[in-house]
Amino acid sequence: MPTNAPSAAHALTDVTASDRTLRRFLHGLPGVDAVGLEARAASLGTRSIKTTAKAYAIDLAISMVDLTTLEGADTPGKVRALGAKAVRPDPTDRTAPPTAAVCVYPDMVPVAKEAVAGSTVKVASVATAFPAGRAPLSVKLADVREAVAAGADEIDMVIDRGAFLAGDYGKVHEEITAVKEACGTAARLKVIFETGELSTYDNIRRASWLGMLAGADFIKTSTGKVAVNATPANTLLMLEAVRDFRAQTGVQVGVKPAGGIRTSKDAIKFLVLVNETAGEDWLDNHWFRFGASSLLNDLLMQRQKLATGRYSGPDYVTVD
Amino acid sequence: MSDTRLSVFKTYKLYVGGKFPRSESGRVYEVTDKKGNWLANVPLSSRKDARDAVVAARKAFGGWSGATAYNRGQVLYRVAEMLEGRKEQFVREVAESEGLSKAKAAAVVDAAIDRWVWYAGWTDKIAQVVGGGNPVAGPFFNLSSPEPTGVVVVLAPQESSFLGLVSVIAPVIATGNTAVVVASERAPLPALSLGEVLATSDLPGGVVNVLSGRTAEIATPLAAHQDVNAIDLAGAGTDDGLAKELEIAAADNLKRVLRPQPVDEVDWAATPGTDRMTAFLETKTVWHPTGALGASGSSY
Predict the structure, then answer these.
(1) Is B58 on the interface with A (CB under 8 A)?
(2) pLDDT(B263) > 70
(3) What pTM was estimated for this model as a whole?
């Protein structure tokens, strides 16, 4: 695992010294060639992944899923069921790997923690007034502390899109730094940009760098609560950002596309993006995750198809 | 200037999920008439087309099985209306595919249209015939009602490319099932054209999906497919080969199987009876307590 290279990190410390230096740095990032980006993402989506490579990709994708339930109607029973599914996704086939984590609202963290106890599955909790992110900083920090105290291994925070779009990068930076501090060493921090609300690819690139400069352990596309969620293009852009960030500072940051990834085919396309952009170092659930719920069922059905040669159906996976 | 006009050839395509895709594999095969003259190139479907068709049929099942029987009857009648308007095309295709005279082909098409009307009438009557109240020894209201079994794979008859086809599709969808149809391998043109008719008949996309290609190639993964609830082997042939193999594959998830009948015993022109509808129904029985029976022996 790469370590901090002090001199490079130092170079970027200057960037966050003041609002003005931060703004100058973020606006000095090269503009995104939107057509080129989308063409690149589309061309990488045409790779044919078959047989043993497909089996490997499916198992890898299952191990990268953050199995998510973020509904107002979540009950302890539903969270327990989700936890059981995360630990053993396919009860009929013990070779299926567990997922990376379950992702729940803060009040469900103790329930989730109990449900996955004794396994490698982590508990991630959204915090900071998810999904709008519209609350005073003190409330957001209290939200985070509660979740961490309840045992969350990972915190998914949302940035203040209003402040970001208004150009108040300093405020966003400060918030992320404060939340990171609240997470302490106990929890890894995922920063959600809600790319569907950032309007332009340039903004997504700026947000990615801003998040990484502020100490994010993961940068995440979206909450899954708006119309446009993770797309291959915006994920590719974020993968380029983490690659370049590591090249400059030596610090590796993870990426998590979330929302709208429903089929194994889509998931495998994302894995191709990871391998071709960030590289093999990211092909691990410590550095890449899928925020999804229905994706897991499709992965399991594909897995059953590969194992038995027969097409499987929704009757053979859990309804959740 | 010459008065000869360039012919406009028709590109026959599959009908899956209300759309007209080419085969995922990009393959086609040549269809000829009885004498071997070329008629058209049609898609040679792969197992992935079959998989997509099952997904489309499953997606359509909720809406179609949930529609009122009366509404399904209206839609089936609409199919007959639409066919009536395109009769000429079907007469030509049937005549070419089956080597019939114009007059005989017209009679076949008429019979097929009448078959749609016949089944349209059955949609809201089949429940009265095969369901109803059951007399039971206890204070219960006991009701049985037939429900559609789900996604049904239909291997269309190989010889009767249109009347036989309609006679196997209509009963399946009349009761609320959705269908994945494998068209006659040698004469798929009427089936593919029927897809165009269905698309314009208020039939929701995905209720009927039509695939053309090698019956054995497409039917094998479909028979083993875990998300298919039943299979009609009308076009599998009666020899022990394919039909038996498919039946074994279908047993894995306990699919309902309608075995093929010996070819010379099938008279597609005869009035069919309800067998093809009841073959793909599940009976749901509800026991409802009525409370203590009064002195009169009944609380009603």
Answers:
(1) yes
(2) no
(3) 0.88
